[in-house]
């Protein structure tokens, strides 16, 4: 499977209509998997309960609004009242979900717009902080997205982002399930990176790249954490979309016709049910947490 095909399939998933079941899945996954990364990243760039200085932040490739939600939880209300948060994503469906959350959850000074991470159209030197949580490694032109993120930062502004260092927690179980099938089930998706530029899983590459882009005070760490899976049904609800992506990206049309989604999902469910004895389990996530500062004038 080519990187381009993997990226195309992944973007199609998030460009399609998001119904209530998918919304629930995205928000549950955001809480269990993405929020710990965002929280760690925000602390690294100085935006947490200790923050006293107002900020102007752009969350690039915002997804369902994980970073904005964590800012509402972490930052003191009096600081939020003097700050602003802009969430941007290529998917109007995800932007719509964030707008619902802004209203429904009462987020302070937060907006959401459909914005292309590779060409934001935002003014240069506009923001004190730019973030991208689990984003750069799946953006088609990730170098342009990185350059844009730096361009729109003020002098002294801070970039913070996370990428996967190892495949996401669901991947090993799905791969083992595929290998147990009574038929050949290819599992060759690049689950760490779908962009052709760079090596976003490599800590050394990330550090050198930020240096080459002129950033200072660079910090790149690896962060490991656990996320709870309640059981086989919960695993399938949260992972089914990614299983479909792996099938679309790696299987021939003929193989997908012979063994459709219902059969494959059933076999994966049966595998994890047996492996974990009908109980819940913890998944391991390992991510890169990186930050750097634009030079001050």
TrEMBL record:
Domain Methyltransferase type as annotated: residue spans: 59-159
Keywords: Methyltransferase, Transferase
CDD domains hit by this protein: AdoMet_MTases
Gene Ontology annotations of biological process type: methylation
Molecular function per GO: S-adenosylmethionine-dependent methyltransferase activity
The keyword Methyltransferase appears for this protein: yes
Stretch forming the signal peptide: none
Protein name, UniProt field: S-adenosyl-L-methionine-dependent methyltransferase
Organism: Podospora appendiculata
Upper classification of the organism: Eukaryota, Fungi, Dikarya, Ascomycota, Pezizomycotina
């Amino acid at each position: 499977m080519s990187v381009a095909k993997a990226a195309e399939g992944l973007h199609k998933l998030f460009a399609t209509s998001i119904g209530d079941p998918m919304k629930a899945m995205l928000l549950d996954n955001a809480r269990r998997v993405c929020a710990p990364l965002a929280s760690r990243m925000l602390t690294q760039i100085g935006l947490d309960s200790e923050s006293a200085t107002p900020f102007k932040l752009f969350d690039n490739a915002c997804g369902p609004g994980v970073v904005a939600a964590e800012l509402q939880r972490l930052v003191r209300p009096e600081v939020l009242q003097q700050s602003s948060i802009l969430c941007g994503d290529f998917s109007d469906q995800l932007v719509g979900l964030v707008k619902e959350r802004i209203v429904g959850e009462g987020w302070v000074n937060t907006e959401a717009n459909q914005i292309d991470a590779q060409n934001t159209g935002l003014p240069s030197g506009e923001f004190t902080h730019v973030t991208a949580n689990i984003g750069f490694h799946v953006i088609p032109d990730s170098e342009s997205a990185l350059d844009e993120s730096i361009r729109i930062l003020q002098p002294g502004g801070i970039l913070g982002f996370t990428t996967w260092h190892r495949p996401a927690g669901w991947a090993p179980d799905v791969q083992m399930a595929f290998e147990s099938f009574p038929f050949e089930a290819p599992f060759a998706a690049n689950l760490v990176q779908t962009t052709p530029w760079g090596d976003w899983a490599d800590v050394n590459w990330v550090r050198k790249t930020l240096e080459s882009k002129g950033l200072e005070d660079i910090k790149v760490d690896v962060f490991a954490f656990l996320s709870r899976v309640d059981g086989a049904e919960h695993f399938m609800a949260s992972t089914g979309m990614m299983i479909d992506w792996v099938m679309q990206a790696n299987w021939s049309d003929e193989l997908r016709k012979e063994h459709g989604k219902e059969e494959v999902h059933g076999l994966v469910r049966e595998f994890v049910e047996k492996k974990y004895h009908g109980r819940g389990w913890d998944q391991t996530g390992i991510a890169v947490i990186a930050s750097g500062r634009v030079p001050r004038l």
